[in-house]
Design a protein that fits this description.
Layout lengths: L2 H16 L2 H19 L9 H24 L3 H15 L8 H15 L7 H12 L5 H11 L4
Helix pairs in contact: 1-2, 2-3, 2-4, 3-4, 5-6, 5-7, 6-7
Length: 152
């Protein structure tokens, strides 16, 4: 079991004892998502810490998107609940990159790969992936790369 999963289990126990319903429900949901990922595929396996972070990031994104949908549909209470769950998940994710930090990383990666023009997008994204893993959403990264390559 990864260190992150251990921490989630431990924090779930604390939340249960404290009667913190939002944290308890969110951590149970995240642990279930990790469990589903562990048994997906031909054989069951333990996830690496990096894989666990990817699951957490995916679950956080789901909460954010659901909150936007509920907000657009006029269901404020449900939107607030989704945002509260996203806040709980964010506690376990690495700090997100600011726009300036992301732009600097993109510029450095473009320079180091010697990439230019729209056709180099994949090359830059591949080199940039490990540098921003878990610290920026793919859409934001892609938009920054497009801008740096003069596409956006």
């Amino acid at each position: 079991m990864g260190a992150l999963k251990d921490r989630l289990q431990s924090d779930l126990t604390v939340a249960m004892k404290a009667g913190d319903e939002v944290t308890k429900a969110t951590l149970r949901m995240v642990l279930t998502a990790i469990g589903v990922e562990e048994v997906a595929g031909a054989t069951a396996r333990s996830l690496s810490d990096e894989e666990e972070l990817k699951v957490l990031a995916r679950e956080g994104k789901k909460r954010r998107e659901a909150a936007e949908a509920y907000h657009a549909g006029g269901a404020q209470e449900r939107a607030e609940r989704e945002l509260a769950e996203e806040v709980v998940i964010a506690r376990y994710l690495p700090a997100q990159l600011g726009d300036d930090e992301l732009a600097a990383l993109v510029a450095a990666t473009v320079a180091e790969t010697g990439a230019s023009g729209p056709q180099a997008m994949g090359q830059v994204m591949k080199a940039l992936g490990p540098k921003v893993a878990g610290r920026a959403e793919g859409g934001r990264v892609a938009a920054a790369v497009r801008a740096a390559l003069g596409q956006g």
